[in-house]
């Protein structure tokens, strides 16, 4: 029987988030991630067992779909207007790429192909990862890094990128300055 997920997939059914560890005729068991105990994508240690009838009553989100097993992730950094935006964009992009595993890099073209096959026009990926800039009301610029990642590695990858980007940007005070504390 075709199902919306298999053992090992990272899913959300209703308010339940978890990695599927067991599927039986009557129920499914998830190893919870996020939830009440954790705010990250790491397993909380709790098991969630729910009746399979919930699958027909709720949306099912599969974060590890076989055709495209990655999810979008984003990180924000805050800099001043005086910063060299092109340099910051390039530096963050290169650091992010250096922290993505080979499996993820292999899927970048798959992602481009899937987006180009959608009926939605105007979506084109020229550079990856994406870097978007937003003006904030407190007179600073939010730099948003958007990239794809294995859903089970999302928290660790985010942490690794942050730990690499901040020191790299701090090394170049002539090219980038940060929003003052308390703004």
UniProtKB/TrEMBL annotation:
GO terms for molecular function: mechanosensitive monoatomic ion channel activity. This is Mechanosensitive ion channel. GO terms for cellular component: membrane. Residues 3-39 form the Mechanosensitive ion channel MscS domain. The keyword Membrane applies. Keywords: Membrane, Transmembrane, Transmembrane helix. It is found in: Membrane.
């Amino acid at each position: 029987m075709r199902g919306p997920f298999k053992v090992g997939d990272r899913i959300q059914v209703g308010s339940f988030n978890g990695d599927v560890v067991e599927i039986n005729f009557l129920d499914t068991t998830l190893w919870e991630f996020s939830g009440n105990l954790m705010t990250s994508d790491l397993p909380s240690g709790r098991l969630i067992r729910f009746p399979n009838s919930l699958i027909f009553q709720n949306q099912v989100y599969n974060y590890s779909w076989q055709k495209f097993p990655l999810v979008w992730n984003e990180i924000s950094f805050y800099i001043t207007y005086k910063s060299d935006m092109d340099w910051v964009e390039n530096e963050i992009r290169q650091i992010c790429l250096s922290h993505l595993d080979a499996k993820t890099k292999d899927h970048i073209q798959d992602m481009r192909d899937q987006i180009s096959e959608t009926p939605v026009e105007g979506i084109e990926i020229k550079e990856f990862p994406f870097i978007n800039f937003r003006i904030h009301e407190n007179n600073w610029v939010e730099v948003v890094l958007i990239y794809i990642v294995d859903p089970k590695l999302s928290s660790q990858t985010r942490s690794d990128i942050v730990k690499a980007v901040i020191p790299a940007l701090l090394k170049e005070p002539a090219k980038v300055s940060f929003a003052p504390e308390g703004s």
